[in-house]
Amino acid sequence: MIVNEREAVSRAKFWELERRAPPGVPVYQQDPFQNDVWEALDGDKDDFLVYDRCGLLTFHIVLPYSFLHYVYVEAAIRATYNKNICNCTLLGRLITTAIIIIVIIAILILTTTITAVTRISPNISLTQVRMKLFIVLVIITLILSILTTIIIIIIISSSSSSSRTSSLATTVILLG
C-alpha cells in the first residue's frame, strides 16, 4: 500500500500518485488532522516499510536506498515474500498458546495437590507434603518435556515446507 503525506502539496498530487501506482496497490491519503503515519511507524517520507504476513516489520528502507533503481526495495520484498524471515506461522502461535495452557494447568494441578494433601491429612508432616509435591513436579516436568519434544519435531518438519508457502501476504508501505 502507498500512504500519501498529509501536507497540502502532497494532497494536491494524490490523484497523480494513485494513477502511477501499480495495479492492485491501494493508495491512501492521510487526513490532515489525523495522527501522522510517519510518527506512528517511525518512518519518513519516501521510506519503504516491508511487513510480513504476521504484521511484523521485516525491512525499513530509507533514502537514498529507497530509490527504485536500486535493488534494496525489491530484495526486501522478495526476501519477505519468499523466505520465512520472522518464522511466524499459525502453528507457531498454536504451539505458544498450548505451552501457556500447559503451564497454567500445571500450576492448577500443583495448587490443587497442595490443597488436597493438606485437607486429607491435616497432621501430615512438612516432609511428606514436600515429597508429594516433588512427585507432582516430576510428573509435570516429564509431560512438559514430552510436549516440548513433540513441538520441536513439528516445527522442524514444518519449517522446510512452510518456507515456500508461508509468506503469502506481504505488506509494503511506501511513505510518500
From TrEMBL:
Coiled coil: none annotated. One of its GO terms (molecular function) is selenium binding. The chain crosses the membrane at residues 55-73, 94-114, 134-156. It is found in: Secreted. GO terms for cellular component: extracellular region. Keywords: Glycoprotein, Membrane, Secreted, Selenocysteine, Signal, Transmembrane, Transmembrane helix. GO terms for biological process: selenium compound metabolic process. InterPro entries: Selenoprotein-P_N, SeP. Residues 1-90 form the Selenoprotein P N-terminal domain. This is Selenoprotein P N-terminal domain-containing protein. The lineage of its organism: Eukaryota, Metazoa, Chordata, Craniata, Vertebrata.
